[in-house]
Amino acid sequence: MAEPRERKCPICGKPASDEFAPFCSKRCADVDLNRWLTGTYVIPARDDEPEADDEEA
Ligand SMILES: [Zn+2]
Questions:
Q1: Among 14, 26, 32, 41, which one is least packed by beta carbons within 10 Å?
Q2: Where does this protein hold Zn(2+) (predicted)?
Q3: What is the CA(28)–ligand 1 centre distance, in A?
């Protein structure tokens, strides 16, 4: 049984609209974008990768 995918707006929890998926509205999309821009989302900082050390001695 394939259920239709229910997408909920991550901002307000309302059903997402196709147009603004995964958000329900432009407003919520803007809110999300703003969170990104203002750094509300925690993006794990990633140090420079150490030199690849694949080969085993
Ligand atoms: Zn929403």
A1: 41
A2: 9, 12, 24, 28
A3: 5
Does the pLDDT value for residue 26 go beyond 80?
yes
Question: Which helix (DSSP H) or strand (DSSP E) does residue 13 occupy?
Answer: none
Do the Cβ atoms of 20 and 7 come closer than 8 Å? no
- The environment of the single-atom ion ligand 1, i.e. residues with CB closer than 5 A, is 9, 11-12, 14, 24, 28
Over residues 21-43, mean pLDDT: 85
Residue written as token pair 């609209």: 17
Residue 34's SS3 state is: helix
pLDDT at 39: 77
